[in-house]
Amino acid sequence: MADAVIEAIKKAIEGSKPLERKFKQTLDLAINLKEIDLKNPKNRMDENVLLPKGRGKAVKVGAFGASEFAMKAKKAADYVLSPADIDNYAANKKQFKKIATECRYFIAEANLMVPIGKKLGAILAVRGKMPMPYPSNIDPAVIINNLKNTVKAKTPKDSPVIHVAVGTEEMSPEDIAENIHAVIERVEKKLERGKQNVRSIHIKTTMGPDVRLR
Prior knowledge:
By secondary structure, the protein is α/β, with parallel strands linked by helices. The protein folds into 2 domains: 2-56 and 151-212, CATH 3.30.190.20; 60-147, CATH 3.40.50.790. It has 7 helices and 10 strands. The protein has helices spanning 2-15, 67-73, 83-91, 93-102, 113-126, 140-147, 173-190, and strands at 26-33, 46-50, 60-64, 79-81, 103-109, 132-134, 150-154, 161-168, 198-205, 211-212. It has a 4-stranded antiparallel sheet with strand order 8-1-9-10, covered by helices on one side. Strand 9 and strand 10 (211-212) form a beta hairpin. It starts with a helix and ends with a strand.
């Protein structure tokens, strides 16, 4: 299976080369599900998956915190927002919307979740970016660095297909294959019947042809 996945990745990348691109293409994994009632919230998936070989492109992470938590977060976060910043952005929501759009993920010191929810929750929730809460005594830099290599495996309400970015065309096929394995393994563990709930799996570049993995 591993060799077949690597060959499929190579085929997907080669298939997109005839036309030159001015951007780095992403490799998108599509997992088509079957025999699952997505109208039932219990059957929907919303999982963060750490890619062992990274995303291949940078993403931004924001952190809400104070004191030592904020100081440690500055080592890795693209934005560190204090309790005072929460109040300031509540009064200037247009400016905060830019940050919310830029950042893929947010984390927060647990005791700030209530004011964040009340003052900025409407902006974050609609984007699916409510912060993940953590206790004050952890090192947020470790969490943030992991999130920068994390992708979300999520089932839409009205479509039995999970789309996940598993790398870029500049990564080696072997590294992309390792990322794919991590995603498929996590998804199948969450499905009620595991592999039996998977109809097919495909890989493609942003603008390239679709290649079936299985």
